[in-house]
UniProtKB/TrEMBL annotation:
The chain crosses the membrane at residues 605-636. This is Uncharacterized protein. The gene is AUGUSTUS-3.0.2_01625. One of its GO terms (biological process) is regulation of cell wall organization or biogenesis. Keywords: Membrane, Transmembrane, Transmembrane helix.
Amino acid sequence: MNREEETARKFLQRYNSFNPVILLVENSQASQDAALSFLKSVHKLEPRVQNINFMLMQFNETSVSPVLETTRNSKLRMEKILSDRIPSSPSSYLGRETNRSAVFFGILNAVHLLPPTSGVVVFMKRDVEDEDLSQHAAIEVEKKRVQVFVFCGMNRKGGYLEELAERSRGGFWIQPDRDLSSEYFEEFLENIGAFTSVSMILSRRKLRGENNLMFPIDSDVTGIHISIAPGVTTGLLTTPGGYNIGVLRSDDVVRYSVGSFIKRGSGGHEIHINTTTATTRDVGVWRLQVGNARALYNVTVFAHTTKITDFGTAVNKTGNKKKIVKLGNISSISNITNVSFVTRDGNPILSNAKLESHNNNSLNINVEKVPNESFYAVIDGIDSKGHNFRRLSYVRGSEKDIFFLPPITIDLGLGSELITQPFRQPQLFFEVTNNGNTPTLVRFFCQDDKGILLSMDPWYKWINPQETATVRVTLTTRSGQYQDHITFTAAGTETVSKKVIVDVGISNDDRRDPHIDYHFTSDCTGVLLGSCEDATWTVEVKAKDTGSGLLQVISRPKGIYFPNGFTSGTTEEVTGFFSESCCNPDLELIAFDRQNNRRTRHINAYWATLSPGAIAAIVFGVILLILIIIGLFFLFRKCCIAWRSKGNYDLPVYRGPLSSRRA
């Protein structure tokens, strides 16, 4: 007996009526395929089933369809509906689905259409959790003595839905052909809050060809998460015990332990290994062999653990100008054997740093020279159980200090299309930046007013310190002239949102540049260059575009922050702030509108007392002075030439007597 026939046999063993049966199918490809296999198998196994009128209804998270087709009318047409591929359809919400009551609404609608002693067969994957509505559905089911059969793609018990099916003398079964990797990924998203305690243990960038990477895993680690971007063509993960896991094969990853999965996307591969459910705890050195012959790629390995060493890192200068790298929160660590520094690409800077002091709260590292660029401190040691461990701690260099930025910020990418036409698929690019010192797991959600959201990629992302992840949201516009308000949300250590206005079919011929102005709230006019490290400056920036609306305001270097946020596409004035060290006094500000018109301002914190008009006047005066000097030079040269020409007299030439010339 194959898998397709197993589902049909379970139904035939319990349904002893020839009354109509409604197939209530969730609007997903997996559920639709399962319903098609069931319909074919049940007619194949029992010829008398042709006397039963099967009716097709579908449901999603917001609605339930009417009866789409019946076998009494056309069995072939019903099979055709179920065999059609489900295209990506527009929606008003993208992200983790929140409606867990949809199936109960579907059952209530189906029971209302059926005569007594009939049946409802549900094919679904979504989770359900609504006690009140399930009780209401159970009452209606019992009134008409309807049997409810549920074939579910979840890898867990069905809760209220399972109780409803059993009370109706139907049945609740897990579909045998479910994709466990996808199910474990959905579980991961549901319980994503449990994975906020994380530490980086390996970071390598710009790798080429084949690479053999090794990292230790201690007993405190409950999960390993490997992020590979943009993706590799070969990948093999070997445990300390010698067990090989093909990290690009879903069945290999799932087979290792319950809860492990692989998620493929346009940006690369995400592999999650649950170490707590494995047959044996693989503590020791793991080896990852990866390769990509076509492009450079990055590999980052995170450990889910409560043993964190990369919290509150800082670089301090003592009274005698000695540099100290301070790492905080290193409790539960028995012994630190080595501390080294590597670049953000993973290249070595310092192989063995000198430990000055070590206690349960902090670790001081004495170094003569701290890199100006940000880097990672690699901490190797032995935990209280005698196992080797490794953690990477992000240390922000002295090239930039950010004062106002919150842990997570969202900007709209300049390639986003906010003015478009009907029947197109414009894209929005949201740039999510982790401004903290620790890796952060961030989930993404998107919703709008007009229901034109088509897709979002990715749905979640590990973002390293001071790095930016780009999330692509694709729209699908319909006919008409309208304005859609879109809200994009990123949820990590805190939840932040970015609002966007998209015009569809609305012409806007805006050729004027946006307005941008600034005002120093503190500056560097009284600071000597030799003591610039001890001083900072802050500027308040105001921008406005009354034409097509303001798209984005960026700063070079990055770091401008809008405390109240602003809606991209607004015609109102927005206010932001930027702060920096006096060692970096220069700043470029650029404002863009939705028609890609732009205006740029260049400012310097040492020239803060001068207004833009005064600076322009000084520059104009300098240019005018140079022109005057050049003019005087040419005038003086001309006068000299004229004077020389007037002082040149022609004198007679004496040629001697004629006789002497003849001789």
